[in-house]
Every structure is written in C-alpha cells, then in structure tokens.
Automatic annotation (TrEMBL):
<dbReference type="GO" id="GO:0000271">
    <property type="term" value="P:polysaccharide biosynthetic process"/>
</dbReference>
<comment type="pathway">
    <text>Nucleotide-sugar biosynthesis; UDP-alpha-D-glucuronate biosynthesis; UDP-alpha-D-glucuronate from UDP-alpha-D-glucose: step 1/1.</text>
</comment>
<dbReference type="InterPro" id="IPR028357">
    <property type="entry name" value="UDPglc_DH_bac"/>
</dbReference>
<dbReference type="Pfam" id="PF03721">
    <property type="entry name" value="UDPG_MGDP_dh_N"/>
</dbReference>
<comment type="function">
    <text>Catalyzes the conversion of UDP-glucose into UDP-glucuronate, one of the precursors of teichuronic acid.</text>
</comment>
<feature type="binding site">
    <location>
        <position position="210"/>
    </location>
    <ligand>
        <name>substrate</name>
    </ligand>
</feature>
<feature type="binding site">
    <location>
        <begin position="255"/>
        <end position="259"/>
    </location>
    <ligand>
        <name>substrate</name>
    </ligand>
</feature>
<dbReference type="GO" id="GO:0006065">
    <property type="term" value="P:UDP-glucuronate biosynthetic process"/>
</dbReference>
<feature type="binding site">
    <location>
        <position position="327"/>
    </location>
    <ligand>
        <name>substrate</name>
    </ligand>
</feature>
<dbReference type="Pfam" id="PF00984">
    <property type="entry name" value="UDPG_MGDP_dh"/>
</dbReference>
<dbReference type="Pfam" id="PF03720">
    <property type="entry name" value="UDPG_MGDP_dh_C"/>
</dbReference>
<feature type="binding site">
    <location>
        <position position="263"/>
    </location>
    <ligand>
        <name>substrate</name>
    </ligand>
</feature>
<dbReference type="InterPro" id="IPR008927">
    <property type="entry name" value="6-PGluconate_DH-like_C_sf"/>
</dbReference>
<feature type="binding site">
    <location>
        <position position="86"/>
    </location>
    <ligand>
        <name>NAD(+)</name>
    </ligand>
</feature>
<dbReference type="InterPro" id="IPR014026">
    <property type="entry name" value="UDP-Glc/GDP-Man_DH_dimer"/>
</dbReference>
<keyword id="KW-0560">Oxidoreductase</keyword>
<dbReference type="GO" id="GO:0051287">
    <property type="term" value="F:NAD binding"/>
</dbReference>
Length: 440
C-alpha cells in the first residue's frame, strides 16, 4: 500500500521504516529540512537501536523515501499518518497546532479518497478537529472528496522502538466507518502474531486509551517512588517489597522500579494533558494530580540527599554524573531527571563532569558550553578529580563498574544512585557511603 507519514521524529521515522519493512511504499514528510537532508544522505537524526539499518535497507529497496514536498506527500499515500509533535501548551493541554497544520496540508492537496490516521498522542475530540480542518480546506478548493479519519495511538518505547512496532502487544485502532476499519486491518495484518493483536474501537475510546495507558504506568512509578521514600524512613528495603508485590499476577513486575522520577517525551506531558482534559470536563482526577506532584518532588530527591549530606552551599564541589538521557538506550533529554539535578547543582555553585553513552550531543545542544559542565567520553573520565559520584540513568555500562577505580578517583567515597544499581550491603563492605532510593 502507499503510505505517507507526516513527521519524521521518533514515532514517524520508526513507523515509516517498519511499514516499509513489511512491503509498503512509504513516503516520510517533515517540515524540518535539516532532518530530511540527513535522512536523504543515509543518516538518521536520532539514536534508536536497529533503526539506521532498517532505514538504509528500505531506502535501498525503493520502499522508503523522505521529502519536504507537502504536495507530493499529500498525494502519495492512500493512508496518511499524522505523527507530528503534540507538546504541552502553557496550561498543560496538548498543543494541536502541528496536527491541525498537517491535516490542512492534506486537505489542500489531496485529489482522491484518503484515510487520515492520528498517530500522535492527542486529546479526545482531536479527530473531529482534524476532520473539520480537512473539510474546510476541501471547501476552500470547492472540492467534494471523501475521506476517513482514524485514531491509531502509538505505544512504542524509545530504545526499543523498532521491536515494539514490529512485535506489538496490541494495535489500537479507532474508526468510525467500515472502509477505514478494513484498510487498517489490511495494513496491520503483517504485524499480527499468534493471535489477533488489533483492538478495534470507536475513535474517542482509542484517543483516551493512549492517555489511560501512560497515566496508569506513571501512576505505578510514582506510587513505588513514594513507597520507596517511606521504606527508607522505616528501615525496610523497597527491593524486597517490589519482589513481594510483583509476584502477585494482578500487580506484575513491570514498571515497579523506584528511582529519581520519570521523564521523557510522553509520561510528563501526557499526564499533564489528561489533567487538563479532566479539568475541562469538570471531572476530578485526584489520583492523576497526585502523580504529577509526586514526580516533580522525586526529580529533586537526589539533590535533597546531596544537600542533606554536604549542605546547601556546594560551591567548588565537583560532581561526577553518570547518565544524562531520561532512560537508557536513547539520546532523548526531554524532561530528564539529570536536568533537574544538574541545574540544582549549578545553582549551588557546583561543577558537573558528565558521561552518557548517547546523550552528550543533545546535552550540548541544550546547555551550550555551560561553564559548570564538562562532557567526557568515558565513565572513568567523569570520575577524575570529582568529589562524589551521582547516577541518574541505568545504562548497562554502569551496572558492574570497577569499584576500586571509583574509590581511587573520588575525593569522598560517596555515591548518590538514582536508579538502585548496586547492593547497599556490598557497597558498605567496599567502604562507600551509598545513597539509593528506598534501599535498606
Ligand atoms: P518529535 O518531536 O520527535 O517529531 C515530530 C516531527 O514532526 C518533527 O520532526 C517536526 O519537524 C515534524 N513536524 C511538525 N509539524 C509538521 C508538519 N506540519 N508537517 C510535517 N512534519 C511536521 O515527536 P515524537 O517523539 O515522534 O512524537 C510524535 C507524537 O507521537 C507525539 O504526539 C507523541 O506524544 C507521540 N508519541 C511519542 C512516543 C515517543 O516515545 N517519542 C511514543 C508514543 C507516542
Ligand atoms: C513511554 C511508554 O512506556 C510508551 O508505551 C509510550 O508509547 C511512550 O511513553 P518512554 O517514554 O519511551 O515510553 O519510556 P519508558 O520506558 O516508559 O520510561 C519512562 C520513564 O519512566 C523513564 O524516565 C524511566 O526511567 C521511568 N521508569 C520506568 C521508572 O522510573 N520506573 C520504572 O519501573 C519504569
């Protein structure tokens, strides 16, 4: 099938490549000419395991192409995926300007039936706005063309995006007409595994499903974070508690890891947007309000522990920092806990020597040449001459370090670990002062 994907960010590029991989003829459109130039030169603008090879393979096979030409893209795909950003507005609601602009562009140039699919995470009711924008553009042109609008939220995780798309747990498809349902079933047939993964529903339910999933996961994390903080005060160990509750099938083990707060491009903004929607409709969602407040506090936790240990004036201190990305296997720094920590340390006069396997570039883009930040190329280089070590992202390379090297480099044998990578008892034996999250 001929497919257009509008927006070549994490979601658009992964979707485009994976849809090409199963034999579709995919055109990816972006308004960012730099991104398209990188893609047309054989590179990829983001770090995502397995993506570059897949993109190259499908470009070489003639199934995947990249363009900034809006007219060409609008005419190419029978199915038009909208995968543009939906960042938070000033009041926390999702900013739909890019989604509506994408829809308008389709309406401006389409010449035959199109199935327009919202893949961006959008509030309930957005499909109606997309429909209205398309209709208005068609009316301006004096055209009367048929089209359908569907909702197909994306559940991929950064760092595992290709695998998540190729082997989905479920494919949520919201449609209001049979033609759209049939096209979506046909498109996703190659992604079905041992049983039907497609969950068909109406458009509004599909739109809400995405927010429900992210808010539920964020709630689990915030609950565990607060429980960990309590465990610490009680002299209990959250790691035992996690295993104890996770073994209950109704709870399960996933997403129960306490830490220094959740970040990323989705949880923070989607929790906020769901709050806004609930407020708009006058429906109290007290649980979601609390999740957001708890996460904000949790992102400050490492800094509070540092202040409790070394005082509020950290001037002249040098902090080794392992991990910058909001989670491992990505270079994404959006809402990363490392940012809250670094900014707090800088405000108090401290220096940061940071290492991340993928996010140094992105950090440099955000902070420029910050006078209190040095980005280094190895975990060991971050330790050189540092007072203490702080860990914010659980990259595999940090999991079993040479503790003798750490100790030999640090002025104080102190580690603040926001991801519970080590065993407290072992750390004590090795002579470290080890601050983790909720560990005994
Ligand atoms: P992104 O910011 O990485 O990419 C969005 C792209 O859209 C950018 O390259 C931008 O230039 C382009 N764009 C904006 N307006 C355009 C237009 N009118 N025409 C063509 N291109 C345009 O965003 P992302 O992380 O891929 O997220 C996209 C959507 O998917 C968001 O709604 C997000 O919430 C959702 N989502 C993201 C993830 C994730 O892990 N990143 C997972 C699931 C869902
Ligand atoms: C999330 C959803 O998982 C995905 O389904 C959706 O499509 C987009 O949003 P992503 O943001 O890529 O994916 O990362 P995820 O693995 O969910 O982690 C989000 C944040 O939660 C990270 O900061 C991570 O460190 C944190 N986290 C995750 C925890 O603190 N504890 C956990 O147990 C799991």
């Amino acid at each position: 099938m001929k497919i257009t994907v509008i927006g070549t960010g994490y979601v658009g590029l992964v979707s485009g490549a994976c849809l090409a991989e199963v034999g579709n003829n995919v055109m990816c459109l972006d308004v960012d000419a730099k991104k398209i130039a990188i893609l047309n030169q054989g590179g990829i603008p983001i770090y995502e395991p397995g993506l570059e090879d897949m993109v190259k393979r499908n470009v070489a096979a003639g199934r995947l192409q990249f363009t900034t030409d809006i007219e060409l893209a609008a005419q190419h795909g029978l199915i038009q995926f909208i995968a543009v950003g939906t960042p938070p507005d000033e009041d926390g609601s999702a900013d739909l300007q890019y989604v509506v602009a994408a829809a308008r562009n389709i309406g401006k140039y389409m010449t035959e039936y199109k199935l327009v699919v919202d893949k961006s995470t959008v509030p309930v009711g957005t499909a109606d706005k997309v429909r209205a924008a398309l209709q208005e553009e068609l009316s301006n042109r004096g055209m009367d063309l048929e089209f359908s609008v569907a909702s197909n939220p994306e559940f991929l995780k950064e760092g595992a995006a290709v695998d998540d798309f190729m082997r989905p747990d479920r494919i949520v498809v919201g449609t209001d007409d049979e033609r759209a349902t049939n096209l979506m079933r046909k498109l996703y047939a190659p992604f079905q595994r041992n049983h039907d993964r497609l969950v068909a529903m109406d458009v509004r339910s599909a739109e809400l499903t995405k927010y429900a999933a992210n808010a539920m996961l964020a709630t689990r994390i915030s609950f565990m974070n607060e429980l960990a903080n309590l465990a610490e005060k009680l002299g209990a160990d959250i790691e035992h508690v996690r295993q104890g509750i996770g073994s209950d099938e109704r709870i399960g083990y996933h997403f129960l890891y306490p830490g220094c707060g959740y970040g990323g491009s989705c949880f923070p903004k989607d929790v906020q947007a769901l709050r806004r929607t609930a407020a708009e409709y006058g429906v109290p969602m007290r649980v979601i309000d609390a999740v957001e407040t708890a996460n904000e506090a949790q992102k400050h936790l490492l800094l509070s522990k540092i202040i409790a240990r070394f005082g509020n004036d950290l001037s002249g201190m040098r902090f080794a920092l392992w991990g910058l990305a909001f989670k491992p296997n990505t270079d994404d720094m959006r809402e990363a806990s490392s940012r809250v920590l670094m900014e707090g340390l800088w405000e108090r006069g401290a220096y940061v020597q940071a290492f991340d396997p993928a996010a140094a570039h992105e950090t440099q883009r955000i902070y420029g040449n910050h006078p209190q930040l040095t980005l280094v190329d190895t975990p060991e280089a971050a330790l050189a001459g540092a007072d203490v070590l702080t860990i914010v992202t659980e990259w595999k390379v940090f999991r079993s370090p040479d503790f003798a090297v750490i100790k030999a480099n640090l002025k104080h044998p102190v580690i603040f670990d926001g991801r519970n990578l080590y065993e407290p008892a072992q750390m004590r034996e090795l002579g470290f002062e080890y601050f983790a999250i909720g560990r005994k």
